[in-house]
Design goal:
104 residues, mainly alpha, two-stranded parallel sheet, 5 helices, 42% helix, DNA-binding
DNA sequence: CGCCGAAGCTGCC
DNA sequence: GGCAGCTTCGGCG
């Protein structure tokens, strides 16, 4: 297998950020297309089930909000949390819809 | 069901 | 050292 095909995204490890952030971004990139996750689930995945808020900050602090499926992360209520990126929550909803994720 | 306040975690000034 | 933030939970009406 070609390693090049594997690195279709950006190397988070190469980016500047804390261990916590890198972990969060890594999980985001491991999320399959059309799949979403809550901040809480994400926090639990990285080992900080009580750091849902911190996770939100890390996700929104990523250097490439376009290459990072930050829009795949939603509230535990199944609603869109927020979006510090361009367009705001509006863009987030649009991206989710494009991905095939329909919100009720 | 909707609103309010408090809690636990990180990153930055 | 302290504040604010893409949240979460519990209690109350």
């Amino acid at each position: 297998m070609n390693m090049k095909s594997f690195m279709k995204k950006v190397d988070i490890e190469k980016l500047k950020g804390t261990d916590f952030q890198k972990k969060v971004w890594r999980v985001l990139l491991q999320i399959p297309k059309g799949e979403i996750i809550t901040y809480k689930e994400l926090a639990i995945k990285i080992g900080r089930p009580r750091a849902a808020r911190a996770v939100g900050n890390a996700v929104g602090a990523n250097p490439f909000p376009i290459k990072i499926p930050c829009h795949r992360v939603i509230c535990s209520d199944g609603k869109i949390g927020g979006y510090s990126g361009k367009g705001g929550v509006k863009t987030k909803r649009a991206l989710l819809k494009k991905e095939g994720v329909i919100m009720l």
